[in-house]
Amino acid sequence: MRTALGRLLTAGGYAPVSFGSAEEFLAASPRDRPVCFVLDIHLGAMSGLDLQRLLKVGGCTVPVILMTAFDEPHLRDEAMRNGCLAYLLKGSDADELLGVLRSLPS
């Protein structure tokens, strides 16, 4: 899924950087300011929601899009309460994700 998402974003004109886990992302050296974070709800030891909360508490204002294979209303509600820009189901139309990204200020 991560590879397919990377290809989609590249084809859409973005330069994605992907990580295998939240912990891998947190250990990485900072790069240019990202346009957006696209996080999977179920990342492993630390969930996408956990990472979203951690970023928010740390003062990060980069928008977050959460993706999941399981539409769980309580997780959707929590994500949106925490300021999630969009909550998308894996397998959604590619244009839906690209549309959300294109709506972001440059």
Tell me about this structure.
This protein is of the alpha/beta class and 106 residues long. The chain has a domain at 36-106: Rossmann fold (3-Layer(aba) Sandwich), CATH 3.40.50.2300. The protein is 42% helix and 12% strand. The protein is built from five helices and three strands. Strands 1-2-3 form a three-stranded parallel beta sheet, sandwiched between helices. Strand 2 (64-68), helix 4 and strand 3 (86-89) form a beta-alpha-beta unit. The model has no long low-confidence stretch (mean pLDDT 90).
Rg from alpha-carbon coordinates: 13 Å
Q: By CATH's scheme, which homologous superfamily of the domain at 36-106 applies?
A: Response regulator
Q: How many β-strand stretches? A: 3
CATH class of the domain at 36-106: Alpha Beta
CATH architecture label name of the domain at 36-106: 3-Layer(aba) Sandwich
Structural class: alpha/beta
Uncertain runs: none
Sheet having the most strands = 3 strands, parallel
Tally of helical segments: 5
Distance between the termini: 26 Å
Biggest β-sheet: strands ordered side by side in the sheet = 1-2-3
The run of helices and strands is HHEHEHEH
CATH topology of the domain at 36-106: Rossmann fold
Gross morphology is: globular
What's the helical proportion of residues?
A: 40-55%
Question: Mean pLDDT, as a whole number?
Answer: 90
Strand-residue proportion: 5-15%
